[in-house]
Amino acid sequence: IQHHFPPVEDNLISTDLFLTACNTFITFTDLLGPVLSRAKDSVLVNISILRERYDLDHTKYSYIHELILDEDSEPVPDMYLSLIWLKRAIEFIYHFLLRLTTSTDTTLPQDAYHAYEISLKPYHGFLIRALVYMLINIAPSKENLFDTLVQGAPGGREQLFVDISEYIKKMEDNLRGVDKV
């Protein structure tokens, strides 16, 4: 995983580092095949909306909370909604990776269902839920995913699990930080 989520200090999250980390975790979803292609497109749109505003003034919007507020400290609807949906996607990936690396007796679709149920399902209507369930069932096996992730990396699966654990810890800190925005 190339870019970790940034450290959260005094409830402040660097906008640039946060958005860069979000772009990086999106590349992980490519390994799952078409399962998350629709979600990936949505996440990329939300990242783009937030990045466009950040690019207007890197100093003014250096932290996430500054990005979603106007001059009167009122939420900017587009920014706020983009951040909320981005956070929900991060929660899905967080719960998915956590379960993927801690539940040895489950399948990848079961791990994805679990993550979906507690992160995104409450915000989706019937048709989207049905589509998600259908797509989850065509996910690769855990073994194939792990083999792809480990391919050529030193330390094999043990190191992969250590790396994922470190990654999701920082991800969790950022989720808590975004909650405070």
Report the order of strands and helices: HHHHHHHH
Number of helices: 8
Count of individual beta strands? 0
Q: What is the 3D form?
A: globular
- Terminus-to-terminus distance: 26 Å
Q: Give average pLDDT, whole number.
A: 87
Radius of gyration: 17 Å
Main sheet summary: none
Low-confidence stretches: none
Label the structural class.
Answer: mainly alpha
Strand content: under 5%
Helicity range of the residues?
55-70%
Task: Give an overview in words.
This protein is an all-alpha fold and 181 residues long. The protein is 67% helix and 0% strand. The chain contains 8 helices and no strands. It has helices at 15-29, 37-56, 64-67, 77-102, 108-119, 126-136, 142-150, 156-179. α1 (15-29) packs antiparallel against α2 and α4 runs antiparallel to α5. It is globular and about 50 Å long.
